[in-house]
Amino acid sequence: MNRRPFDPRLPRRVPATRRHLALLGLLGVATAALVVAQATALAALLTAAAGARLDRPALYAFLAAVAGRALLLWAQGAVAAASAATVKAALRTELLAAVGRRGPGWLAGQHAGQLATLAGRGLDALDAYFTGYLPQLVLSVTVPVAVLARLVLADWSSALIIAVTLPLIPVFGALLGWQAQAATERQWRRLTLLGGHFLDMVTGLPTLRAFGRAGAQVEVVRRMADGHRVATMRTLRIAFLSALVLELVATLSVALVAVPVGLRLLGGGIALQTALLVLLLAPEAYLPLRAAGSRFHASMEGLAALDEALTVLDAAPTPAAPAPPAGAATGTGTGGPAGEIRFESVTVEYERTTALRDVTLTIRPGEHLAIVGPSGAGKSTLLGLLLGFVIPTSGRITVDGVDLATLDPDAWRAGLAWVPQRAHLFAASLADNIRLGAPDAEAERVGAAVRAAALDEVLAQLPDGLDTTLGERGHGLSSGQRQRVALARAFLRDAPLVLLDEPTARLDGASEAAVLAATRRLVAGRTALLVAHRPALLADADRVLRIEDGRVTELVPAGGRGTVPA
Amino acid sequence: MTGPAAPRAEPSPVRPEPSAAPRTEPPPVRPGPPAAPDRPLAAERAVLRLARPYLSRLLGAGLLAAGTELAGLALMATATWLLITAAGQPPLDVLTVAIVAVRALAIGRGVLRYTERLAGHDATLRIITDVRAEVFARLAARRTAPPRRSGDTLSRLVSDVEAVQDLLLRVLVPGAAAAVVGLLAVGGTALVAPAAAVPLAVGLLLAGLALPAAATALTRRTADRVAPLRGALATDAVDLTHGAADLAAFGATGAALARTAARSRELAGLERRLAAAGWAIDGVGVLLAGATSAAVVTTALRAGVDGVLVGVLGVGTLAAVEAALALVGAARQWSQLRTGLRRVAALLPAGRHTEGHTGAPNAAPPATGAADPDRNRPSVPAPAAPADGPVGGVGVRLDAVCVRYRADTPPALDSVTLDLPAGHRLAVVGPSGAGKSTLLGVLTGTVPPDRGEVTIDGTPPRAYPEQRLPRLVGGLLAEAHVFHASVRDNLLLGRAGANDDELAGAAAAAGLLDWVRRQPHGWDTVVGEDGGQLSGGQRQRLALARALLAAPAVLLLDEPTEGLDPVAADRVLASATAAAGPEHTVVLVTHRLRGLDRYDEIVVLDGGRIVQRGRHDELVATPGWYRDQWLLQEAAERGYLAIAP
């Protein structure tokens, strides 16, 4: 993890932070000036009061300084919060845009869930960093300087003691803080593990109950939570100890300043007003440093999120990078993939496995190809190649002789429809979900797609019909219903090339029959690639490819078209 | 600590300090569990009921916190007195006591703060331990099917439990300390300078009551407006990452991004405006501290209070108001925690009794071992439950069973009558929504019949003790969860104390054994969260192997070959059916009709009714749903088998 208090990559990513930082700096300088002014006025006020006299100018100056500090505190908070809001919005948008640019192939290695959490709620942890830590960091520079400057004028010997002892805070902080920080980081991991374990147990409750273990696990949960407590307390003892040491260092330093002042006061060597000023200002010099140090822990989660976000962004290409090579035949893509598709010795290697080995095959326009093979054999990779989500490690794919890699991905994809194994349904209306690939499609076309996908019988059961709003990830629809929505999407897309990835997996007989019939309607008159592990899907194929261990062999179906009684 | 803007006690490293810009709860995906009763603070009471055994520890932490604040206040007051008095150049011995007091207070404050924080965290973590166990116990004790919870709701439960920790540590303890300090400050001032006590009391009341009330109102308003936006953005993030492939394939990435960016900007604007309002409260707090101090000094001077005392009062007032301002933070915390607290409280026992509570909190086994990081490695530590011997066969009867989930929907099961003698093999088929899962739920006792009767060995399932029933009826159910633990631990859940031969037998029957043998860590391979490290097929086989190992008298198999290719599906179904003992009953729910010729009886469910029943040969010979499906599947399958090597 980046331990620097401010990530230099941030202003490069979000230029507005430069302005915010400058503002925070100005506010910090003004605050420091007012800290000194307030203490000066209060010292005068109290000195006069000691003589039973009300020093009105000092009173007004004190009140004015306080009012000024109130105003600055507000401004500082507002600027810091504005900065946090800006940075979060910018990073969130950029992160999600990076996902879009790199495509799902890249995402698979990035743990979609982790990224979704980071871009969703993870970045909100930055609030603590921006509003709690950063302004305090600025103050820890400006306030001690201002205090020292004022004390040099008032009583240089006190200023000297403060100047000598002040570095003790960061030195001790570093010595103790590092250890506490390491311990705390370990603790975070353990906490996540235990939290995750509790979640695992709660999620698995029905299973535990089914095996008669639910009751027995209560003691396990208690033991785990208790283990968590003991481990946490062990770390806290160290973490709090560092705070204690820092507090004592500051207190003793103030005492080092105050004792000579008191003695000189007794001997009449210093004015009461000066002595009071020293007493009021000395702690102010140590305070911001300690506060910043202690808030560093609290802002760590935010810094970690920031680090993660910036690292992901640095790993992702800038918007210009993935553009097709100069002179690419972008135009040919718009004609749609109705042309002949050839795989020429295509090999796809992932980090640990080889998904496809030296695959050569030709898909002629209008042909229906079925792909079978055990799970993990490379079927989905084959579709991923055509979708442009997977890039061949070696070999190439051509469309009417043009290398797919040189085509503009969006233009190429405009000519294909995809029905994945488990389509992602969006938290939007059913109609918007169907319109995914054709946002401007009019109601009649949507209606036709709905009927073609056999979705109309599902709609009949929904009170709001097409206007039904789905929950997150399409919550509220069964697998069969989801699959029909995905088919409706593909119908509406009306593309010459259709890619289907086990469209009837996880469906019962009745749904399967409906989806199967809809699938047949969809592929009619189009080029189709169909991954199947249900036999029902194979009857329609012109050719059947079998993938095993990344190698493709062609099989001739015994039946062929027309043998299925339906 | 004289500056009004001086930060209060250092934040606890256990949880990040909440930002001053109020953070908010995620919005419920759907209306959460019923809110706690309308009694004021009902949720807080319910949670604090669990804190009762630790009351003395909490009280001690609160007193230590008050002591810390008082020491700080006294330190500044004494030091001021010391300086002003010294200016009069009295003999040194007049000052001796004060000098000693300043030293003691300076060191004492640090030590007090240290002990207070330790004591507070210790008490809180002890209470959290009980809350977690209690919440889990309540969930575990539910016998009926729990309301379906999404992963989000569940993870919220985990963070909700942590809301209890924040309530105690950040609201209750500092709140109590601030109240004690405020009362003592006003009381002390009233003794030495009655006139000055009035402005002090007013300032403290404003800082300790009015400002926290304003902060609470603002935090709530913020939550109402920000939470839906944050929730929507979180959903957007899920859609844009998990749905990235769909978006890209359909060329919709750009539009989705633009929508999210607009929403993100809207949230940023709202956060800026609300944070400005929130920080205004903090600004007013600073102003209040200074103004109160000035008012106290002025009033005291007018009332002719001794000059030295005026100085002490002026400095002391700053510290006291500052202490009271801690309540603003506490109020913010509290209003953010309430939603979570209510959800936790809804899961806690409502009555006075604390069932499942094992008396003395310290009776838990010494936790040193559990605290060892290595021991915290994922596992399902199933304590050796008394491993009953193998169960014999039992008969199962369903007599005109009806189940209706809601009055306005058709029944899920309608007059279903079945008679399953020991050793019977029953297959249940039918279109989705036909009532197949409900039938299994009735057998396991999670779904109570509205009419009719279910008996297992002559007794209704729900009449069996909770520990006994799974030995009689159980198996591979639809919501089978695979734990973040080793393959072995997951399997042992089926039968604690099974030896490696028994594990291998079950794994072989489920077709998992070859895969296990290929893993470098064999049985100790950790399978990831909900089996995330496994492929769909392996996860399914693991769940099946666990069910087979459990070997209940009535083995339920809900789509055991889902996600397997046809050849594997046939093999696994045959071996799994054979693995059940001859005297054990098997109830199979499937959509695939191959292999059912080995079953004694097949029932076809449709709309909750049994529309066909008989043996495979009979059903294939009779026109109807079964025959149609069989022909469809078989014709397609022949084509496939012809090409499969």
What can you see in these coordinates?
- The complex is a heterodimer of chains A (566) and B (645).
- The two termini of chain A are 62 Å apart.
- In chain A, 61% of the residues lie in helices and 10% in strands.
- With 566 residues, chain A is an alpha/beta fold.
- Chain A has helices at 9-13, 16-50, 56-108, 112-120, 126-154, 156-165, 168-203, 205-210, 214-266, 272-315, 330-334, 379-387, 409-413, 430-434, 443-452, 456-459, 479-493, 509-523; strands at residues 341-349, 354-363, 368-372, 394-399, 402-403, 416-419, 497-501, 527-531, 543-548, 551-555.
- In chain A, α2 crosses α5 (126-154), α3 (56-108) packs parallel to α10 and α9 packs antiparallel against α10 (272-315).
- In chain A, the strands form two sheets. A six-stranded mixed beta sheet of chain A has the order 6-7-8-3-9-10, with helices on both faces. A four-stranded antiparallel beta sheet of chain A has the order 2-1-4-5, covered by helices on one side.
- In chain A, β9 and β10 (551-555) form a beta hairpin.
- Chain B has 645 residues and is of the alpha/beta class.
- Helices cover 57% and strands 8% of the residues of chain B.
- Chain B has helices at residues 42-51, 55-87, 96-141, 151-192, 194-242, 244-249, 253-302, 307-347, 368-371, 436-444, 469-472, 487-492, 500-509, 513-518, 536-550, 566-579, 616-621, 625-643, and strands at 396-403, 413-420, 425-429, 451-456, 473-476, 554-558, 585-589, 601-606, 609-614.
- In chain B, α16 (566-579) links the parallel β6 (554-558) and β7 (585-589).
- In chain B, α2 packs antiparallel against α3, α5 (194-242) runs parallel beside α8 (307-347) and α7 (253-302) runs antiparallel to α8 (307-347).
- The model of chain B is unreliable at 1-37, 145-151, 351-379, 381-387 and 641-645 (pLDDT under 50).
- Classes of the chains: A alpha/beta (566), B alpha/beta (645).
- At the A-B interface, α2, α3, α4, α5 and α7 of A face α2, α3, α4, α5 and α6 of B.
